[in-house]
Structures are given as C-alpha cells and as structure tokens.
C-alpha cells in the first residue's frame, strides 16, 4: 500500500482489534507459554478462531465506514524469545511468515468491503510488556529486532507497530531497524496507572526523546496497556507533542500491571463505559484516529467505542 504515512496522518478514522492474547487464552481457552500466541499459528483450530476474531472487527469497520489496521499475530515474535519458547530462531521467523500470510489472506477477503485495510506487522518487546527491567540499549535493540523486521519487509507489510514498549531505548532501536528496511513505524508505549512509562518517564519525555534520536521516524505514537482513566488527564493540555499521539489501545481494567499479573480471571471492565471514555478522549484530541483495545478488551469494547465515536451501528 502506497502513501501509508500520509493516509494514517490524515483525519481518516481507523479501527483495529482488541486484546488478542487475553481473548485467545482467557476467553477461548487456548494455551501457550509466555502469552506467545505466535507459536499456535500452525494449529487449524487457532487459525479458525483467529479468522472469526478478525472477521468480527472488520465487520465493525464496514458498518462504521472506517478504515482498518489489520495486525499480524507476531507480538511475541522477536527471535530473542526462541530459547524461552523452546524453538529455534529460524522456526520463530517461519511462524512470523505464516502469520503475515494469514493477514494477507484476511485482507484479500475483506478488501471489497472495507477500505483501506492497512497490513500492520506487530512487534513486541524482547522482554516483558509491563516491566522495563533489563531493557536493551538502542543499538542492541536494533540488532535483536532486525531478523523479524527483515521478515516483515519480505512479507510486504504496509507498516510495523511496536506495541507494549516499556522504555525509549528499545523503541528507538526498533524505529532505526524499521527505517533501515524502508518500513513506516508506529511506537506504542505502555503506561502505568500514573500515566507514566514503567521506567518513570513521562509520555511527553518518551515521545520527545524518541523523536530526537530517530529524526521523527515514527509516523505517530500510541498508548496501550492502561485504562483511559490512567492517562486521560495527559490530553488536557495543548503541548505540541500531543499531536504526535495518533491512536489508543487501552486496557479494559483499571487494575495496575502488578495486579493484572497476579489475576487468575480476566477483568473485562465495562464495555459501554469504555466506549464513552474513548469518545471523550477523541473530543479532547482531534489527532486520535486509530482506535482499538489492549488487555481484557474484545469485540464488545471496540464495538461500543466505534458506536460512540462514529455514531453508526457496530456489527
């Protein structure tokens, strides 16, 4: 897809999916180590459920007449995870290729009903998505994420998004790797209940540092893994960095990351409230244009958000 950067920088509204891993494991009953849904790509039952999952969100985009950002199931795909998952690095990269092929096939089936559909290669951290301990420096991060970035470039994704980034150094390394491979990139930072990154950095600091170190390489930034109440006050100001925030993927739950890590049941929050809060955030920040969910969210949450944002019936 040409001109993806200008498309996603316009006022065009886009939907994306919810908390895929929490949906797959908590609600659908599948299991995988370290929340690594990628390792299940060869399972026909998982693929069938994935198709059902993404079809539901694409139907919402069709009903709301929005574009759609279609994610690959590659969040736990950094080759550094291979030893932990009991796989070789080559096998990890093969699974990323399978996930990209699955996304291409899904887009082909929906391309006449939803337009545009942006195929988004998802990158997760080399470590934990809630904890910045042991985060790599930018040079090391670029090296770590380059093998998967090469797979994304070969698979002809439209862009890549680094989700659940807990620190700026890894985000900077990923942005450099994406630029090296000619791929537009999005950086999505994990926020704590105080609206700061797990490192203690403010979102303003994180965006400013990342832009300065990458020559404004990210086409926009996102917020993930926090309830809207945890970061809505950040949108009360008019500082220029706020215009760099182009999307939100909030948690359903108000619980802290420490509490969520210990939870044995999924906190689904209140989908209707979730949708109302998204509409309030969008009213505060016109730069927001990509809307989805993170941990604990599913079709109900994104459907309610779409209804309140776009005032059209959600599928």
> What's the overall geometry?
globular
CATH superfamily placement:
Homocysteine-binding-like domain
Low-confidence stretches: none
Q: Estimate what percentage of residues fall within beta strands.
A: 5-15%
| Strands, total number | 8
Largest sheet: 8 strands, parallel, barrel
Helix content: 40-55%
Secondary-structure-derived class? alpha/beta
Notable characteristics:
alpha/beta; single chain; eight-stranded parallel beta barrel; 13% strand; TIM Barrel; 315 residues
Question: What would your notes on this structure say?
Answer:
There is one protein chain. This protein is an alpha/beta fold and 315 residues long. It has a single domain, classed as Alpha-Beta Barrel (TIM Barrel), CATH 3.20.20. The chain has 12 helices and 8 strands. Strands 1-2-3-4-5-6-7-8 form an 8-stranded parallel β-barrel, surrounded by 6 helices. Helix 11 crosses helix 12. The radius of gyration is 18 Å and the shape is globular. The model has no long low-confidence stretch (mean pLDDT 94).
